[in-house]
TrEMBL record:
Belongs to the bacterial solute-binding protein 5 family. The lineage of its organism: Bacteria, Bacillati, Bacillota, Bacilli, Bacillales. Keywords: Signal, Transport. Residues 1-20 form the signal peptide. This is Glutathione ABC transporter substrate-binding protein. Residues 26-45 are annotated as: Disordered. InterPro entries: Peptide/Ni-bd (IPR030678), SBP_5 (IPR039424), SBP_5_dom (IPR000914). Residues 89-452 form the Solute-binding protein family domain. It holds the Pfam family SBP_bac_5.
């Protein structure tokens, strides 16, 4: 397994990219020597940073979004009360401190003098307004369940706010770090409600121009082409270095690599595992590898036959060798999953082993389910190359037990809509865990109340799992919470609503022309400190 967060050093000398217009211009400062005696240029403020990405954002309303491509962009525009640092620790953001007043009450002291990009003040009333929007059934934010425990947001004074919960809720701080829990301008929220009154969809006005307090401001969005951000020169903390960031949609992986090597892009994500060596030896960039806490999975629609039968789901799970996928498709970047949770997530347990790869047992289970002669089905995926390869591998494996699988690939937004509506039979998807707690991950993927767009696209419904999850989120004692999550994982391994395939490693191509980039364990680009050399 690869170490978390490291740069693979290029084998050739670093040189300046010839396309100065794309790289933010030349550096007029004199070079200095590093500890090894090699020339090293100082960072240069300004310039236009280009990030070539696989997929466009699905929306630019952070409070109704569900996808990583949206959050990866907006983390640089909007902020929440708390955030996580490079060590994955919760640290202050728009809240400078907090304390438990009692078992049900958290009090937050807010940063003073903070303004939104439209000049609106950030105050306790704004915090209240944002959580009311997130929890508003008319808005129907898919991730509202993260904060459904909140009974009241109470304004104490302009810069003090209390969050009062229905019951003691241990993961509240972790939930506040989720991309849905960010603060939008109160004027923008009002404009969005006016849009809803006029018949527009919730979030439509916000998506036209998100307004936060972050170090970058939204400038433009040309769907399926590019999103452009510009530096917020009035940022309440030390500001960003580059002038603009362009997130350019480049679906073809080879084209992204070419853009890195010619200077048309300074960051490319994702890099395919097979491309790492080429970038390493190009002399024009390095590959940043960061272990994530996400899960890549193959899921079943448990409301549709034959996948409403646990024996069928178990059989297919036994046909998939996750170690083979990790090595053959991901070149051993990341980690084969043993269950739904990554080892870095609170509540993870390896007490119960995964279903073993066993072709003969799989055949026996299909016989017992009355499907010994096989059946026809389909598997859906988006344009992610590894997911496509996984679908092909699964198609081949299921042929061994006379299951005929048709692969259907579709555009990202359509894919999310159709799987949310339950139109699929099998599908391949992933989920990141910015919260880092089992409650968010397991509740979203498996609780029956979250069927569809809220995350449970398997349409899984198990009263025992619901009970255990509800009990765990109300338990303050960490040891007891872990025991409850162990029981949940035991049921989920046995019941097999999905095949737990892989915990992703994020591979980013980084131009030798920049410094200061990192990506967090949820796949969000952290660009505040990026500088051109």
């Amino acid at each position: 397994m690869h170490n978390k967060k490291f740069l693979v050093t290029a084998l050739f000398a670093i040189f300046a990219l010839v396309l100065a217009a794309c790289s933010g211009g030349s550096d007029d400062k004199p070079a200095k020597e590093n500890e090894e005696g090699q020339e090293q240029s100082e960072g240069k403020e300004g310039g236009d940073l280009v990030v070539a990405v696989l997929s466009d954002a699905a929306t630019l309303d952070p409070q109704t979004a569900t996808d990583v491509p949206t959050a990866a962009v907006l983390v640089n525009v909007v902020e929440g009360l708390v955030t996580k640092d490079e060590n994955d620790e919760i640290v202050p953001a728009l809240a400078k401190s907090w304390e438990n007043i009692d078992d049900l009450t958290w009090e937050f002291k807010l940063q003073e003098g903070v303004k939104f990009h439209d000049g609106e003040d950030f105050t306790a009333e704004v915090v209240k307004k944002n959580f009311e929007r997130i929890l508003d059934p008319e808005v129907a934010a898919p991730r509202a369940f993260l904060f459904e425990v909140i009974e009241e947001v109470k304004v104490i004074d302009d810069h003090t706010v209390q969050i009062i919960t229905e019951y003691p809720f241990a993961p509240l701080l972790a939930h506040l770090n989720h991309p849905v829990g960010v603060m939008l301008s109160p004027a923008l929220i009002e404009a969005d409600y006016e849009g809803m009154k006029a018949g527009r969809q919730p979030g439509a006005v916000v998506a036209e121009g998100p307004i936060g307090t972050g170090m970058f401001k939204f400038k433009s969005w040309n769907p399926d082409d590019a999103i452009v951000l510009e530096r917020n020169d009035d940022y309440w903390q030390e500001g960003a270095n580059v002038d603009t960031i362009t997130f350019k949609v480049v679906p073809e992986s080879g084209t992204r690599v070419a853009e890195l090597e010619t200077g048309y892009a300074h960051l490319i994500e994702p890099v395919q595992p097979s491309e790492v060596t080429g970038i390493e030896t190009s002399g024009k960039g390095t590959v940043d590898v960061t272990d994530g806490n996400s899960l890549s999975y193959v899921a079943f629609n448990t409301e549709k036959a034959p996948f409403d039968n646990p024996k069928v789901r178990q059989a297919i799970s036994m046909l998939i060798n996750t170690d083979e996928i990790l090595t053959g498709i991901y070149d051993d970047y990341g980690q084969a999953a043993k269950g739904p949770l990554a080892p870095s997530v609170f509540g993870y347990s390896d007490k119960y082993p995964p279903l073993a790869h066993d072709i003969e047992k799989a055949k026996q289970l299909l016989e017992e389910a009355g499907l010994g002669d096989g059946f026809k089905t389909s598997i859906w995926t988006n344009d992610n190359p590894q997911r496509i390869e996984t679908a092909v591998l699964l198609q081949q494996k299921l042929k061994e037990v006379n299951v005929d699988v048709e692969i259907e690939q579709m555009e990202w937004g359509t894919y999310l809509d159709k799987t949310a509506n339950g139109e699929h039979e099998m599908f391949i998807l992933g989920l990141s865990n910015p919260v880092g707690d089992a409650d968010y991950f397991l509740t979203q993927l498996f609780h029956s109340k979250n069927k569809g767009a809220s995350g449970n696209r398997s349409f899984y419904d198990n009263p025992e799992v619901d009970r255990l999850l509800d009990e765990a989120r109300q338990e303050i004692d960490e040891a007891k919470r872990i025991e409850l999550y162990e029981e949940v994982q035991k049921v989920l391994i046995e019941d097999a609503p999905m095949v737990y395939v892989y915990h992703q490693a994020y591979l980013t191509g980084v131009s030798n022309d920049i410094d200061g980039y990192w990506i967090n364990s949820s796949g969000h680009y952290m660009l505040k400190d990026v500088k051109f050399k």
